[in-house]
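User: I've been trying to design a sequence by hand for this structure and keep getting stuck. Would you show me what you'd pick, starting by listing the structure so we're on the same page?

Assistant: Good idea, let's start from the same input. This is the structure you sent:
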């Protein structure tokens, strides 16, 4: 209910108020007369302070948490083993990676928390309380049950109280979502967090702190913290890669010990370093950094991200539940254009002036209605009137009155109040026409949830006979950008539901204005928490009802909480926007909780994203940015899996497939010349170093040739650090956001990554094989006239080859089409050039010698082969296989989408996060296409609106046959889509009707229509065609259309 001026009879107001608002009433209570300081101190010890406990994790503990987890544990184990076998440099590098990851994650986490704390700029709450027989302002956190407090206009209610005597009006929007103040009398209970808008009463404090309505709501915020969706995805990927790496490394270790007879230390060192190099250690650093860069992008649009993982979840968000009051609406009553008048010559402007004259217009407004009226009228224009007397609002007569002298010196009275009261004042009981019309207007407006205020003035020549002038209509209007924002959400595949604590009729009218649909039931059929305050086990049975509704009204915080949880349980990625205490539990439970500008501390604390600018338009920016970030993260993960598979499988196969000893023996020949000196006597005596002296027992000397192919530890670490380190720049890459909510199809991701990795791995194996074969007669090297390189140069070749292939693989992994189809970001391109240049430079100038008993030699050094063009050949080799790799990737994506492998095509069109086929369940089938139907309905409505506008402004109401046909067909199409759950019949019917509209638009429309209006009609028709095409694609996936039609789609 609103203020008394807008109510019915006084006798029925309390009953209506109790039924329609969230106010509780206490019939039996003992009114406080004030406490002594000693009593208050004793009660404070018993109940604690009047504040909510805020659990804050110390920053040092946040840092330690980033050093503990699946990935950090793997690195710690590797560090321990490296220290155990005294590989100090390798252990130090791993320690650096570990602490760099933890520091970055800690910085981003604490920075977001500090930003939210900075928003809490409100002063410490105060309360006027009577202690020791004296009234005084005191710290509200020291209030206790039984205190006597004074609640006056403009003051915040400091605790849950009971009104002792009198009457006040209380704004509960932050608690319940009700858009107008609630009138409270003796025994009613204003809640902590609400605000008194009119009146002054003494009240008894009933509950404080965690026992208040505010506090109980906050209890629902406990828990709920778990792994984010991206963390779960990364854990799945890491599990697969770690298991694969451990398995292959263990097999390689056993083979080296048992077959190659390597020492345990050497074999263990190689496998541990290979394990660390193959496991994507930097995956968390790069993902965290990319999300952090995205949070900075969002901050430029007035959105502070408090939980980085929520950015990825927003990219996949397909359901947005929004509070109404203050979020979709302005939370401020405004006069509407519709103003029924009852006297000739009256209009909205004249009625508004008389309403303002019934208030003290020269003083600050006293209540919400005076604020609304005086805010809409031309106040300087009232200076010509003189206020003689004013009668403030009286609950017994339910109206205000002003005695005024006009500019002509004539005195008259004006009044404003409830329509029935003003009509009775105007003798409507004896004027049947007036009474019937007033009742009809009130009924019509009431059915739409629109409130009204009647205005009357005295007749000329008298101060006691009244005549009705008109009725001002008002409501809490939507924000200017709300309707467009909702349409943009639908265009991006996100469904929108309105969930409010306001009354059903008001909610339905607002939903109608915004184009959300009018299926807005109240909370009667919604689930409730069980007796222990836990989520009911049968919550899923409410899913169908919740999904089909356009929203809900008169809900409590627990209803919002359970609606969000129910939607999450059936597979929706749910976003929730809100500003009040009543929204906080749902904000916490949602995948993405969004606190709008001006939100309460409770809402901000529960949210993942806090908006600092009014309106919801920033949410659309956030969705688009989040999807761009998702693409960057997915592209990097695609690359990282491919790079891991390349590195791991290459060295695993190399251990078994290649025997460097044969290369050395063929190239070097006998290692003792005719004079007994240790040197090669074969055709290529420079190919391998001779590292072993004659045996101690006097036997023949043996060369210490490499037993298996490997890279030195330092080179592997350089590949990991140089490539993965510079890949942080992927956060700045240029990407195209998806037009639909993102979802992870890991089977497709691993398939494409495997194709990329196999090509890189195969080409690396080919290079090693070609080089090891080079000393043999008829080798490819001999046919091409290339010299046999020293073994040290082979090692540097593979270092350069793996480094180049790694980075070139990224450019393939970041697009579904050819690598040139999306130009990379400047920073990513610059980082790539730096990394590729450094890798090439290192491979070229590396000093000749040994690392970890492995020969190394720079490719640009003259060396024994007297050849310095190896870097050029390696680049040519890598670029050639990169093109092969990219071509195979494009073919893979084409086949995957064409034949719907792993449901790659159908899964993208099913608007649930974990569902990939409409056939999975009846609910999934019903949800598929729901957003597309709503979007098409809006686009058809836009065409209908434009046709109506043309008829009124261009053709003076006369519609030519073609426009009449379009108007009729658009109306039929909208009827087909009203409440449509995209059943098979309705999908076909809608498609036929849209086709008929398009056919009619293609014909001459007739009439004299301006080019501007015709262009606007064509623009809206094009948007309708695009929406219809989206619906057809979904219908084809569901099998709603015949095969021929699906082929077209």
């Amino acid at each position: 209910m609103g203020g008394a001026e807008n109510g019915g009879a006084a006798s029925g107001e309390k009953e209506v108020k109790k039924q329609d608002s969230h106010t509780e009433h206490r019939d039996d209570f003992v009114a406080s007369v004030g406490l002594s300081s000693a009593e208050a101190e004793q009660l404070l010890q018993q109940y604690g302070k009047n504040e909510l406990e805020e659990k804050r994790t110390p920053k040092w503990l946040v840092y330690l948490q980033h050093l503990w987890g699946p990935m950090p544990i793997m690195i710690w184990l590797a560090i321990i083993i490296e220290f155990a076998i005294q590989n100090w440099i390798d252990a130090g590098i791993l320690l650096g990676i570990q602490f760099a990851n933890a520091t970055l994650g800690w910085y981003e986490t604490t920075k977001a928390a500090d930003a939210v704390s900075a928003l809490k700029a409100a002063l410490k709450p105060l309360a006027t309380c009577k202690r020791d027989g004296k009234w005084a302002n005191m710290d509200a956190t020291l209030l206790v049950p039984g205190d006597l407090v004074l609640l006056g206009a403009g003051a915040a209610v400091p605790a849950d109280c009971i009104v002792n005597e009198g009457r006040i009006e209380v704004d509960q929007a932050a608690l319940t979502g009700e858009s107008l103040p609630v009138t409270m009398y003796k025994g009613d209970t204003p809640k902590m967090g609400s605000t008194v808008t009119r009146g002054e009463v003494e009240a008894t404090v009933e509950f404080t702190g965690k026992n208040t309505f505010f506090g109980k709501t906050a209890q629902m915020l406990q828990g709920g913290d778990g792994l984010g969706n991206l963390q779960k995805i990364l854990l799945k990927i890491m599990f697969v890669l770690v298991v694969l790496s451990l398995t292959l490394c263990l097999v390689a270790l056993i083979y080296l010990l048992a077959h190659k007879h390597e020492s345990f230390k050497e074999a263990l060192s190689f496998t541990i370093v290979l394990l660390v190099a193959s496991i994507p250690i930097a995956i968390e650093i790069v993902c965290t950094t990319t999300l952090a860069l995205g949070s900075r992008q969002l901050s430029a649009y007035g959105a502070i991200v408090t939980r980085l993982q929520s950015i990825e979840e927003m990219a996949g968000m397909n359901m947005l539940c929004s509070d109404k009051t203050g979020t979709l609406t302005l939370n401020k009553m405004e006069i509407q254009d519709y103003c029924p008048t009852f006297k000739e010559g009256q209009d909205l402007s004249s009625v508004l002036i008389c309403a303002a004259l019934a208030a003290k217009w020269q003083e600050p407004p006293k209540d919400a209605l005076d604020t609304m009226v005086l805010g809409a009228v031309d106040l300087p224009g009232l200076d010509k009137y003189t206020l003689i007397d004013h009668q403030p609002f009286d609950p017994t007569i339910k109206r205000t009155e002003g005695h005024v002298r006009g500019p002509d010196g004539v005195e008259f009275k004006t009044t404003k109040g409830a329509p029935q009261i003003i009509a009775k004042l105007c003798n409507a009981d004896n004027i049947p026409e007036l009474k019937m019309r007033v009742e009809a207007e009130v009924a019509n407006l009431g059915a739409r949830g629109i409130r009204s205020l009647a205005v009357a003035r005295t007749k000329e020549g008298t101060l006691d006979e009244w005549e009705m002038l008109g009725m001002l209509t008002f409501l809490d209007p939507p924000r200017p950008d709300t309707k467009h924002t909702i349409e943009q959400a639908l265009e991006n595949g996100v469904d929108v539901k309105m969930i409010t604590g306001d009354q059903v009729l008001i909610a339905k009218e607002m939903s109608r204005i915004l184009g959300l649909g009018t299926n807005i039931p109240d909370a009667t059929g919604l689930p409730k928490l069980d007796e222990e305050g836990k989520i009911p086990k049968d919550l899923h049975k409410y899913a169908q009802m919740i999904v089909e509704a356009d929203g809900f009204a008169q809900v409590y915080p627990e209803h919002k909480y359970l609606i969000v949880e129910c939607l999450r349980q059936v597979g929706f990625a749910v976003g929730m926007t809100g500003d009040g205490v009543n929204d906080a539990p749902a904000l916490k439970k949602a995948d993405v909780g969004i606190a709008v500008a001006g939100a309460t501390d409770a809402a901000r604390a529960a949210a993942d994203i806090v908006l600092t600018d009014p309106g919801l338009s920033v949410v659309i920016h956030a969705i688009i940015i989040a999807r761009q970030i998702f693409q960057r993260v997915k592209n990097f993960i695609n690359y990282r899996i491919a790079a891991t598979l390349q590195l791991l499988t290459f060295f695993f196969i190399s251990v078994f497939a290649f025997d460097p000893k044969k290369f050395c023996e063929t190239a070097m020949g006998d290692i003792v010349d005719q004079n007994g000196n240790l040197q090669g006597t074969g055709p290529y005596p420079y190919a391998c170093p001779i590292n072993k002296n004659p045996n101690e027992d006097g036997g023949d000397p043996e060369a210490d040739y490499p037993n298996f192919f490997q890279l030195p530890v330092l080179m592997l670490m350089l590949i990991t650090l140089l490539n993965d380190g510079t890949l942080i720049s992927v956060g700045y890459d240029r990407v195209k956001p998806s037009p639909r909510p993102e979802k992870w199809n890991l089977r497709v991701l691993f398939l494409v990554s495997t194709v990329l990795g196999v090509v890189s791995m195969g080409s690396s194996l080919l290079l090693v094989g070609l080089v090891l074969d080079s000393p043999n007669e008829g080798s490819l090297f001999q046919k091409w006239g290339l010299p046999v390189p020293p073994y040290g140069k082979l090692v540097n070749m593979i270092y350069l080859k793996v480094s180049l292939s790694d980075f070139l693989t990224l450019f393939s992994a970041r697009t579904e089409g050819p690598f040139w189809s999306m130009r990379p970001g400047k920073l990513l391109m610059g980082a790539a050039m730096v990394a590729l240049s450094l890798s090439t430079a290192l491979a070229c100038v590396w000093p000749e010698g040994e690392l970890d008993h492995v020969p190394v030699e720079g490719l640009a050094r003259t060396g024994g082969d007297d050849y310095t063009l190896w870097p050029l050949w390696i680049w040519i080799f890598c670029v050639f296989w990169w093109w092969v790799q990219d071509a195979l990737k494009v073919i893979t994506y084409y086949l995957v989408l064409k034949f719907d492998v792993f449901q790659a095509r159908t899964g993208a069109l099913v608007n649930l996060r974990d569902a990939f086929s409409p056939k999975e369940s009846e609910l999934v089938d019903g949800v598929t296409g729901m957003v597309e139907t709503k979007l098409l309905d809006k686009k058809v409505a836009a065409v209908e609106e434009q046709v109506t506008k043309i008829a009124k402004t261009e053709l003076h109401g006369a519609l030519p046959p073609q426009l009449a046909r379009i108007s009729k067909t658009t109306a039929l199409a909208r009827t087909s889509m009203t409440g449509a759950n995209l059943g098979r019949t309705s999908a076909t019917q809608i498609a036929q009707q849209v086709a008929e509209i398009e056919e009619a638009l293609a014909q001459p429309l007739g009439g004299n229509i301006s080019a501007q209006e015709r262009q606007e009609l064509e623009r809206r028709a094009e948007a309708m065609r695009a929406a219809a095409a989206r619906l057809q694609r979904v219908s084809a996936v569901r099998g709603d259309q015949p095969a021929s039609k699906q082929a077209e789609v």
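That's my pick for every position. To get oriented when you compare it with your attempt: The first strand starts at residue 126 and ends at 131. The chain is about 50% helix and 10% strand.
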